[in-house]
Amino acid sequence: MAKGSYLKKLFQSFNEGDFEEFKSIANHIIDDERKKNHFQLADELQRIINSTSFKQLRKAESNFNNNLLHLLPKDKDSNFNLVDVKTSKILLKDLVLDDFVYRLLKDFIREYESAEIIESYGLRPRNRYLFCGPPGCGKTVTAEAIAGELDIPILYTRFDSIVSSYLGETASNLRKIFDFIEKGTWILFFDEFDAISKQRDSLDEHGELKRVVNTFLQLLDNYNGDSIIIAATNHQNLLDQAVWRRFDEVIMFDKPNEEQITELLCKNLKRYPCSEINFVKLSKELVGYSHADIERIGLNAIRTAIVENDIFIDDNKIRKQMEIYKERSKIYNNINE
After folding, report:
1. What's the pLDDT at 19?
2. Are 215 and 75 part of one and the same domain?
3. pLDDT score recorded for residue 54
4. How far is the C-alpha of 232 from the C-alpha of 133, rounded, in Å?
5. The CATH number of the domain where 326 resides is what?
6. What confidence tier does 18 reach under pLDDT thresholds 50, 70, 90?
7. How confident is residue 50, by pLDDT bands cut at 50, 70 and 90?
8. Are residues 203 and 330 part of one domain?
9. What's CA 166's distance to the chain center, in Å?
10. Which of 235, 252, 269 is the last residue in one of the domains?
11. Comparing 10-19, 60-69, 82-91, 146-155, which segment has the lowest mean pLDDT?
12. What confidence tens digit (pLDDT) does each residue in 205-246 have?
């Protein structure tokens, strides 16, 4: 059995909500049991840490993370925070995703929850993910769903603060962020990731941005903490080739197919009575729209029905919103031609 001193420290660290200390002592106990050839007991203790106690440990870790909020990294000149901290209640089941992507994410979450036993084999769980694909197809909300599933706070990087006009400060700001996440367990989310990871051989880019890309690659290479790093981009073709190799997994988020469009419409319209809606036909006509487009059409139909005091939403009301959205798209396309 574990020494009394270990047990005392174990209970004390749990009571104080010190997740890192709790993990460290638990691992000492497991290692001691293995040295005594108590392999079955050691494996059982490892499974307990990785399964039934996971949510409780995350609560303790959450308290630990909250104590770090006053240490959020700041830009030296503006004193603005370099990240925003949020918690998420969104779960994967709330999203409409491609089956392959959904399975990848579920495997990733199971792997992260089993980090201790993976590390006992000399491996580390994957914790660097690159999300690619057109805008409005679920990259950001998926990062939030992972945060919700694991009950980990999400840090949104603020490029308006990170990117500095002063030579060298952008790279310095990135180092501050990585230094901070070493102190706890977070999901670090880089949206519009191409802003700091464009191809270094591009003639359009100046030397400062190339230094920023080099710094980011070094930070990713040297990071060995427990936080999860997720980067998202709508312009994967702009990324430096060396960036791709730094991520454990690259996931493409594409526009929904007919079946997914039907599911999206049903999810968004379920809060209001519906009648005489031909979902199959509508879904065929909505192919090519993004998840965000379809959500906006559905929610706008509900808003209009509420304002006009309609008893229910029908096919015509959704088509009206589709026409409005087509006109909106024309404006956007003319701007970008």
Report:
1. 66
2. yes
3. 47
4. 8
5. 1.10.8.60
6. low
7. low
8. no
9. 30
10. 252
11. 60-69
12. 556 777 888 889 999 999 988 899 999 999 998 888 888 999
Mean pLDDT of 107-133: 91
Among all chains, which residue has been given the structure tokens 């959904």? 102
Rounded to whole angstroms, the Cα distance separating 165 from 98 reads 40
Task: Determine the Cα–Cα distance for residues 154 and 228; give it in Å rounded to an integer.
Answer: 9
Q: Burial, 162: exposed, middle or buried (Cβ in 10 Å; 0-12, 13-18, 19+)?
A: buried
The answer to whether residues 230 and 267 belong to one domain is: no
Copy the structure tokens of residue 297: 């059409």
Q: Mean pLDDT, to the nearest integer, of 120-140?
A: 93
Give a three-class secondary structure readout of 278-321.
CHHHHHHHCCCCCHHHHHHHHHHHHHHHHHCCCCCECHHHHHHH
Domain of 137?
69-252
